[in-house]
Task: inverse folding
């Protein structure tokens, strides 16, 4: 706990690190789903999502359409907040503190300072301690996770490779974070300063991780989850919960001759019944990740819905990778 | 007497935090995910989390009915935040299924969204004169309570800690603090009971 109990006024103190980290603790064991419409948000809540990420385009569509990806239309975020009772998260560009100020003013429950959007600042992330709203940030390794926590992030997720339908990067990032934590726990104290220098993270955080053998904040997996078995894999690798976006709504996309159809508002058309079934299966596999029979049952419940096609990341140029944005 | 088996419903939420406090008090925590886990515990904590998620998972994995049966049979149950919502009679202004284990109506996100989440100090006479450090996260309050319900603490004019017989609820999260008094109170409820039949 970071806030001194003695300093709490009886009338209450909002925006403390304890309540920021606390909301992420309440989401553990759950699935956070990307949604682009209020209708999709309702499907996510019905499926058992613990929160939704409100955004304009899912990562797979951002990847396909290119251009600059920004914070979502705020009236859309508002409509999604009005449509569900579960927490609503929204994304701001890396370093774009004015977008974050807008999202805080709107009253979202969590901000994702996300590499999925086009970075606004190639050097610095948002100074997140200044905000009352909590932030989640992506990380590829322990050093990156601890730098974000030093800046004020109250929750960490693996970056993975968003919108790829390919779990390989999420596995790499989760293993990198967990392996380095295990290593730090084993080294003698006199090595910690050098280790902190090597991974580019503050010594106090490195020492705390070495002692506690875990991050001081909740760690979720994101980027590439597209099947119930993917969710079970990541939970067994130490994720405390799952972000999934393209994985559900790409699987439920309505296509004609392999081309996605769009509605009159420009949103990709989704079969809500398939999306619900798919989302429900991912939730079930996340809950019972250690029980293969339950993951089998969840997979069978997809009823023939096919996971998104996915991308072999070796076929991409460096410039097409999202996870290398921000460090 | 053996230490009581203190269950923590482990479908979703801040399970580890409850387990840590229970261990520090010498209880034996059991993560409850299945029917057989539920059958062997002496009491059950329903942790913080999302109520719409957990009620669906209780139904989907056929745990709701046996859970209700055990609590009606006398097993102590404590719901923290989400858990109190799940145990309540009903949710004000929302068509949300609950288990009806304690005669209260709760209002969800009553203090507001996350920006209104806060730390506060509560007077809880039942736990002694020292104020209780309470952490509210998108917390519910108790809007109505039946005649058999004892209100053990209030915050901003609303009940936030209640007990009716073997069922208790808190709007806040003692498992996120260093003060184990509410957990100790719950364990005393467990010790008053016979070990559940296996």
Result:
């Amino acid at each position: 706990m970071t806030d001194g109990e003695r300093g709490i006024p009886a009338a209450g103190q909002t925006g403390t690190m304890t309540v920021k980290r606390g909301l992420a603790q309440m989401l553990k064991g759950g699935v956070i789903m990307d949604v682009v419409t209020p209708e999709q948000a309702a499907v996510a809540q019905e499926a058992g999502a613990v929160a939704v990420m409100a955004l304009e385009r899912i990562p797979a569509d951002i990847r396909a359409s290119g251009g600059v990806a920004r914070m979502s239309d705020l009236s859309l975020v508002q409509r999604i907040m009005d449509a569900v009772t579960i927490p609503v998260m929204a994304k701001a560009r890396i370093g774009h503190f004015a977008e974050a100020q807008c999202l805080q003013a709107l009253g979202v429950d969590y901000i994702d300072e996300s590499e999925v959007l086009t970075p606004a600042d190639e050097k610095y992330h948002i100074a997140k301690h200044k905000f009352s709203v909590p932030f989640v940030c992506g990380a590829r390794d322990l050093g990156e996770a601890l730098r974000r926590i030093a800046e004020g992030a109250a929750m960490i997720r693996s970056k993975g490779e968003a919108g790829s339908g390919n779990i390989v990067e999420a596995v790499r990032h989760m293993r990198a974070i967990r392996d380095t934590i295990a290593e730090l726990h084993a080294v003698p104290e006199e090595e910690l300063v050098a280790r902190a220098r090597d991974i580019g993270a503050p010594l106090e955080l490195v020492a705390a991780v070495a002692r506690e053998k875990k991050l001081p904040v909740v760690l979720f997996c994101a980027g590439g989850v597209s099947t119930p078995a993917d969710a079970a894999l990541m939970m067994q690798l130490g994720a405390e919960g799952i972000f999934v976006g393209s994985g559900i709504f790409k699987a439920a996309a309505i296509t004609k001759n392999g081309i996605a159809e769009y509605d009159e508002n420009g949103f990709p058309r989704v079969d809500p019944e398939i999306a619900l079934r798919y989302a429900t299966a991912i939730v079930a596999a996340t809950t019972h990740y250690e029980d293969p029979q339950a993951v089998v049952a969840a997979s069978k419940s997809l009823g023939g819905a096919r996971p998104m096609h996915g991308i072999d990341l070796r076929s991409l140029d460096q410039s097409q990778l999202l996870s290398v944005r921000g460090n | 007497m053996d230490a009581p088996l203190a269950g923590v419903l482990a479908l979703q939420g801040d399970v580890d935090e409850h387990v840590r406090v229970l261990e520090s008090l010498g209880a034996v925590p059991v993560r409850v995910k299945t029917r057989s886990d539920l059958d062997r515990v002496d009491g059950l904590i329903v942790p913080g989390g999302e109520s719409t998620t957990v009620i669906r998972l209780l139904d989907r994995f056929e745990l709701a009915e046996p859970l209700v049966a055990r609590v009606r049979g006398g097993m102590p149950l404590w719901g923290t935040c989400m858990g109190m919502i799940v145990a309540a009679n009903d949710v004000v202004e929302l068509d949300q299924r609950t288990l009806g284990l304690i005669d209260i109506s709760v209002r969800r996100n009553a203090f507001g969204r996350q920006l209104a989440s806060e730390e506060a100090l509560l007077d809880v006479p039942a736990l002694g004169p020292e104020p209780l450090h309470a952490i509210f996260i998108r917390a519910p309050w108790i809007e109505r309570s039946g005649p058999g319900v004892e209100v053990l603490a209030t915050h901003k004019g609303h009940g936030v800690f209640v007990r009716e017989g073997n069922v208790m609820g808190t709007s806040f999260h003692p498992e996120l603090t260093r003060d184990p008094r509410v957990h100790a109170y719950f364990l005393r409820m467990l010790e008053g009971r016979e070990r559940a039949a296996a």
Observations:
- Chain A has 13 helices and eleven strands.
- The longest helix of chain A spans residues 168-186.
- Chain A touches chain B through 46 residues (CB under 8 Å).
